[in-house]
Amino acid sequence: MLSTILLQIQKIHTTEQHLKSKTGAEHRWLERHFRDPFVKRAKKRNYRCRSAFKLLEIDDKHHLFRPGLHVLDCGTAPGAWAQVAVERVNATGSDPKQPVGFVLGVDLLHLFPLEGAVFLPHADITDQGTQEEIQTLLPKGKADIILSDMAPNATGIRELDHQKLIHLCLSLLDLARGILQPGGILLCKFWDGKESHLLRSRLLQDFQEVKTLKPQASRKESAETFFLAKTYRGVSNVQQNNLE
Q: Looking at CB atoms within 10 Å, which of 16, 172, 186, 218 has the fewest?
C-alpha cells in the first residue's frame, strides 16, 4: 500500500517537473492535454489516443461498421481508429456468432502490433507500390470502408496545410476506384478552407450521399472536419459521371 502511494507521488512530482521544464505554448498544450476528458477516457478504456472517440461517435450516429466488413484505415498511427474498427467489425472473432471482419492499417510511421489488425508501416498511401501491396493484403483485394485520419506534416501556413490535406484526400478517391466495393463508405478528415468545396464536389461524383461532420471530440478551435461519403457508385458509374 505504501509503495503504491509513493509511486503515485513520484508520478505527480515527475509530471510537475515536466511541466516546469516547458514554457509558453508547450506548457499550455500539456496543461490542456492533462485536463482533456477524452484523454482521460482513452486511458481508462485502453485506447491508444483520444481520436478513438471521434470515430466511435461517428459510427454510433451514422452506422459505418458491422461484423464481417473489411476496413482500410489510412494514417492509422498510433492505432486508435484501428482499435475501434477491430471491435466493431469483429476482426478478432471475439463474437463467434457474428462474421469475422478484417482491418488493414497503413501509415508512414512505425506501428505497434494490434490484435485483429494487419499493419503496413513506413508506407506512403500515394505510392503505387503501397497501393498494390494494399490490394494484396485486403481479402479479395477489396474494402467495404476506407477511413482516413491522415494529415500532412504541418508547415504552420494554414492555407498551404489545408491544400496539402485536400490533395491527400483526393488521392484516396483514386485509390477507391481500385479497391472500394460498390455501396462502400469513405470517411476522411480535412482542414476547412477554400478548397473544401472541391473535395466535396468530387465526393458527390463518386458517392450518392456526402455529409459534413464535426464530432464532439474534435477540439472547438481546430479546423478539423470530416466528410462522410456513403454508397460508392462503383467504377463504371463513376467513369460515366465524369464523362457527363
A: 16
